[in-house]
Structures are given as structure tokens and as C-alpha cells.
Amino acid sequence: MNTFERIYEVVKSIPKGKVATYGQVALLAGNPRWARVVGYALHNNPSPSTIPCHRVVSREGRVARNYAFGSGEVQRQLLESEGIVFESDGSVDMEKYCIKIR
């Protein structure tokens, strides 16, 4: 399995209504230094219907300004449709919605 495929498998495992950071995805894919690579992989997502890249946010809980399938507003709408509520500053409450890594 190549790097992008490993990243996609991790992203597929993020449950509906939850988010993960680029760094968390990188760590779970095998290398904590791959956060930027995660961004590249998600921007090249070959199957948006099965690889929910909208569930990946910054460590501050912010959506991508240049979301791969539209603007950050599209990403926000997709997350809201899954029940995620945004804070008044536009970020996701990471304590509430971020996956936990053991």
C-alpha cells in the first residue's frame, strides 16, 4: 500500500460526526511528519464519496480555506450535515468532535 492509500484508509475510518487533524491522520498512517502529505493526498482524493476528506481539519479545528471540492464553506456545510456544530469563531470544538487516539 502506498502513502496516499494508507492516508485514505485512515480517513475512511473517521466516523460520521467526528473530525481528525492532519497530524492525527499522518500519525495513524505511519509517520507523524506527513501532515502536509495528508493535505496533498486529500486534495487529490480519487473517491470523495467513499473517502470523507471533509472530516480532516487543522489542529485548531479550522476547515481548509481551499477545500479540494469547493471552498471551506463547502467543508463546513458537509460537517454541519453530520451534526458538527461550529464555535462562534468558526472552529470545531475539538474536545467534543475530534477522534481520540490511544
CATH superfamily: Winged helix-like DNA-binding domain superfamily/Winged helix DNA-binding domain
**Might you state the CATH topology name?**
Arc Repressor Mutant, subunit A
The low-confidence runs, each spanning 5 or more residues with pLDDT under 50, are none
Q: Please estimate the helix content.
A: 40-55%
CATH class: Mainly Alpha
Largest sheet: 2 strands, parallel
Tell the overall outline: globular
**Overall average residue pLDDT:** 93
Alpha plus pi helix count:
5
Going across the biggest sheet, name each strand in turn: 1-2
Residue share in β-strands: under 5%
Rg, Å, rounded: 12 Å
Q: From N to C, what is the helix and strand string?
A: HEHHEHH
Task: Tell me the distance between the termini.
Answer: 24 Å
Give the tally of β-strands: 2
Number of domains: 1
Query: If classified by CATH, what would the architecture be?
Result: Orthogonal Bundle
Give the helices and strands, then pairings.
Layout: H1 3-12, E1 20-21, H2 22-29, H3 35-43, E2 56-57, H4 72-81, H5 94-97
Parallel strand pairs: 1-2
Describe the model.
- With 102 residues, the chain is mainly α.
- Helices cover 40% and strands 4% of the residues.
What are the salient characteristics of this protein?
Arc Repressor Mutant, subunit A, mainly alpha, 102 residues, two-stranded parallel ribbon
